[in-house]
Amino acid sequence: MKILLTGFEAFGDVEENPTQVIVERFAKQADTIDYAELVCEIIPVEYELSGQRIRELIDRHQPDAVVMTGVAARRKKINIEFWARNVRTASIPDNSGVLLDNQPINPDEPIEHFLPATLPVFSLYSKLNNAGIPVERSNNAGGYICNNIFYSAVDYLMQGGRDDVLAGFVHIPTFDAIDKETMMQAYKVILQEVTQTKTTKHRQAHMYMSPAIEKQLNILLEKLPDNPVWCTLMDNDTYSVGHVGEKVDMSRQDSLGISFNNSNKMVASAFHGNRSRGEFSYAVVGSNNGSVTLLVWITEVHFLIINWRENASLGTVYMASKAFLQLLQPLRELLSELA
Fold first, then answer.
1. Quick one: 215 and 196 in the same domain?
2. Last residue of a domain, one of 201, 227, 244
3. Is 326 or 140 the better-scoring residue by pLDDT?
4. Is the pLDDT of residue 119 over 50?
5. Who is most buried in 10, 70, 209, 211, counting CB within 10 A?
6. Which residues are the active-site residues?
7. What is the pTM (predicted TM-score) of this model?
C-alpha cells in the first residue's frame, strides 16, 4: 500500500513545525518501513500553492491513502479531524502574505459545505487511545492552510471519482505537549492502521460524524429521561456513524455486549416490532456495573446505543424506549437523506 504522508514548513510564530520534523524523520526511514510504501512531502504554508501541491502529489504518486498532518499549537492532544470545511479564514496571513476572511476553497460550493475524511478516523482514534497517546476527535480543522489542503485533497479525489483513495487530516500539538518519540510512535500507529483498513467509499463516509447527525443525537439526549450521558449511532458492521455525550469511551464499546451477554452481572430483555411500520426491530436494556444501556434499531442498518451511567432504573429505560418512535423520526429522515 502506498501512503502519501505530508507535513508543513514553518510559519508565523511556529519557528520549527513539528510535522516537518516528524515527516522528515519518516522520509529518512522510508526504505526500512515494511508495512507500506511511504512517500513523504513537506507542503508550503500558502493557500493557492498548498492546494495545487497536494493535487500534484496525488497525481504524481497515485497513492492508496493520503495522510496529511499539521500543527495546532494551542491543542494539547493529537486531533483526528473528521470533516473539512470549504472556507479559508484566519487571523494571520500565509507565508506569501495573503490574508483571507471567509473565502471559499471551491467557489462552486457554499462556504458551509463540509467534506468527510475517508481515513478510518474512528479506528485511528481507538488505536491511539489504546496506546495511551493523548488523542481526541475534532470536527473543526480550522480555516487556515491545514483545512485548505484537507478540503482540497478530498474534493479533488471526489471530483475525480477516486473513491478507492483514503484521505484525511491529523492535527498534532507542539513537542511541549507531546514529545518527539511519542509523536513518532503516534505516526507509526496511524500509518499502520491505515494499511489495515479496507477502502471506504465517499458515499459511505458522508454521514460519518456529520454535524447534522450529531445535532440530532444531542437533541435526543436532552429529551430522554434521567439524563443519559452518551449515545452512539452504529451501523451493521459496528461502524460508528456518530456519537455525542460526556466521557464517551469509544475505544471500548462495552455496551455492545448487552445484546449477547446474559450473565448474572447483567439483566437483559428485548422488545420486538415491525420495521416496515417504523417500529423497533428490537431494543435491549441492560444493567452492568451500575450503568444502564438501551440498544435499539432505528433503520434496517443502523442502531443506537444510549448509556445511563448511574441512578437510572430499568423501568426508566423501558419508559424511554416507548418515546423513541417520535424522537427518532427526524434522525431516520436525516439518515435517509444522507444515504
1. no
2. 201
3. 140
4. yes
5. 70
6. 81, 146, 171
7. 0.69
